[in-house]
Amino acid sequence: MPFIETRRSFVNTWQCDENDHMNVQFYFKNFAEAAEVFALRHNMDRISASRPKVRHVRYLRELRNASSTTVKSALIGDGEHQGQIIHLLENTDENLVSAAALDTCENPPAELPTVSSEEIAFALPRGIPAGFLGEQPIEKRLEENKAIITNYGIIQPAQCNINGEMLTQQYISHLTDGAPHIWSHVGITTDFLDEHNFGRVAMEMKLSVIEPVKVGAAIEVVSFCHGMSEKTFTMRHQIRDLETGKAYATIQVINLIMDLEKRKAVPVPDFVHEQFE
């Protein structure tokens, strides 16, 4: 495959969560920095590359503490996602792809390294539809207690790029800090997970940026669950301005519950399914 290498890194202990694997925000950090390197090597705008309008990530295999990683990037040359950038995050110790990110790209130059959609079919969106997802109606859900506020934040300079816009990692950081609250809201509490030695896991995630969050902004995250299958359920998180209610971004996530000993998915409990019947 004619990919070019755009990042080399390492999974540090402090990047891992309670499930003993790398937290999703650091996948987004890897992809954002790889996107900037890719842009710089091809005379593209580095800031818009690091924070595209849509970044769609699939988590294929766990990355554990002390894993060495690389990212390889290329333009998709055909098919449904033609003209978008694909990044593959590889565990170099095992020579396996651990995650993939699909980035929107406006007016890509002709000389970019290009791969066919067939070559990277395994990494393309599956559970979440591709494409931009704008502001979602949430007030009625909040009134009916089907959605809740899961996180607040005052955006600091260290969370932003050189233009004073929040890094994509930080969108996901606010989500991961708030997500346990919506899990608990639908009944999957920390006590329940601890009792069964289960963990919370994201399988696929799409960040759609409506308007960049600027340094100094006060934000809140509104979260709700809206889809359920035997072993997965879908959540949406909307980041909005705490003072004006203006929507900044939406994030869709497909989740599952993982048996932390077997490292395999388990069925969603009946008491959660009953809420959606």
CATH class of the largest domain, named Alpha Beta
Secondary-structure element series: EHHEEEEEHEHHEEEEEH
The name CATH uses for the topology of the largest domain is Thiol Ester Dehydrase, Chain A
Residues in helix, %? 10-25%
Through-space gap between termini: 46 Å
Total count of domains: 2
Total count of strands: 12
Radius of gyration: 18 Å
Q: What do you see in this structure?
A:
With 277 residues, the chain is of the alpha+beta class. The protein folds into 2 domains: 126 residues, Roll (Thiol Ester Dehydrase, Chain A), CATH 3.10.129; 147 residues, Roll (Thiol Ester Dehydrase, Chain A). It is built from 6 helices and 12 strands. Strands 1, 2, 3, 4, 5, 6, 7, 8, 9, 10, 11 and 12 form a 12-stranded mixed β-sheet that branches. The mean pLDDT is 95.
List keywords for this structure.
alpha+beta; Thiol Ester Dehydrase, Chain A; 2 domains; 6 helices; 35% strand; globular
Summarize the structure.
The chain contains 6 helices and 12 strands. By secondary structure, it is an alpha+beta fold.
How is this fold's topology laid out?
Blueprint (H helix, E strand, L loop, with lengths): L3 E7 L13 H18 L4 H5 L3 E6 L8 E9 L8 E7 L4 E8 L10 E2 L23 H5 L3 E8 L13 H18 L4 H7 L1 E12 L8 E11 L3 E10 L5 E13 L4 E3 L3 H4 L4
Helix pairs in contact: 1-4
